[in-house]
Design a protein that fits this description.
Layout: H1 2-22, H2 27-32, H3 34-51, H4 56-61, H5 68-79, H6 90-96, H7 108-119
Helix pairs in contact: 1-3, 1-7, 3-5
Length: 120
């Protein structure tokens, strides 16, 4: 279970960082900033890499979390070939973040209690 706590911590950190990179910016600004785009892609990759090996028992305890979405997004980032593949909107970020059903900018309030519960 310790492994899952570390992985979920990585997911929380990556989701918070990816969200902070887009807060308050419109899509034109986001797509025009190469460093910000690369940083988002890195965090999407980290998020997906950490979500993949989470134990099925932990995933089963928290079925409301879309565990496969970060993995699919990571696959899209790592397998993409065209420039359009690299463009992600805030809406796409929110569909893989644990706060997708809320308007809050930070996903951690939903995930942190679950990370603690997974550790028990």
């Amino acid at each position: 279970m310790r492994r899952e706590v570390v992985l979920i911590g990585e997911m929380i950190d990556a989701a918070e960082q990816a969200r902070s990179l887009v807060d308050g910016l419109d899509l034109a600004v986001l797509n025009g900033d190469r460093q910000r785009r690369d940083a988002r892609l890195w965090n999407f990759t980290v998020l997906g890499e950490a979500a993949g090996p989470i134990d099925d028992a932990v995933k089963g305890r928290f079925p409301e979390i879309p565990w496969s979405k970060p993995v699919r997004l990571r696959n899209r980032v790592s397998m993409g070939t065209g420039r359009s593949t690299w463009r992600f909107s805030t809406r796409q970020l929110s569909t893989c973040s644990p706060s997708s059903s809320r308007s809050s900018a930070s996903p951690s309030p939903l995930w942190k209690p679950r990370a603690e519960a997974a550790h028990r």
